[in-house]
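Hi P.,

Sorry for the delay on this. The queue was packed all week, but I finally got your sequence through. Input first:
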Amino acid sequence: MDLTYWYLFPLGIIISAVAMSAGISGANFWIPVYLFILKLDPLISFWLALLTMVFGFGSGVIRNLYQHTVNWYIVKKYLIATIPGAIIGSILTSYIGGKILVLIFGFFVFVYGTYLLITAISSKKEPQKHSRIFWELGFAAGFLKGLIATGLGKLIVPCIWNHEKIKHPSDVIGSTVVIIFIVDIVAALTRMNPVFVGALIENWSTLFDVMIFVIPSVLIGGQLGPKVIRNVNAKWLRIYISLMLIFVSFLIMYLM
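Then the structure:
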C-alpha cells in the first residue's frame, strides 16, 4: 500500500468531526486540501469532496439516528427543494471553468461566514419560532451544493434553526447532516458525464491511494462530531461555524 498520503488520515478525522459538529459540508475543508495540497484538477477536487462527504456524512447519519437527533419532517420537506437544485447545479459544472468555480466557492464561503458571525454576535434575543419551509432557499442551497460542492448546510441551518418542530440545536445539525448526505449522492452521480468519467479513469491510481486514507478517517470523524454538538450553546455554535467558514475563505483566496 502506498503511504504517500498517510497524513490524510488524522487530518480527515479532524475535518469530519468539525464539519459534523457544525452541520456544514466537509467540502469546505476538503476542497482546499485536494486543490492546493494534492494539486488535483478543480473539477475532480469538487467531485472528490462530494464523494468524501458521502462517506463522512453517512457515518454522521448513523450517529444522529442513534442519538435520535433527526427530524424527519424537516428532512423530507427540504429534500423536495434541494434535490432539483443540486441536479441543475451539477449539470452546469460541465460548462464553467474550474478556476471560476473555485473563486465562486471562496467568495461565497467568506460572505456567508461574515454574515453569520455578525448576526450571531449582534443578536439580542432568539428569533420567534416559525412553521415556514423556505422553499426558495432550499432550492438555492441544493444548487450551490451541485455547483461548488458546498452551501447547502450554510443556507439550510438558519432556515430550520427556529422551526417549531425543532426542539434542540442538535436536531438542527442532525437533520442537516441527513439532507447533506442524500444531496451529496445526487450531486456526485449527476456529475458523471462521459468526459468527466474519462478524467476520473486517468487519475484512478492517485484517487485510489488518497481514498484509502480518507474514507476510514471521515467514518471515524463522523462518529465523533455529533457527540460534540449535543450540549453546545446555540449562540456559541453559530459563532464557531462562522469562524470556521471565514478561515476557509481566507485560505482559498491566499492559495489561489
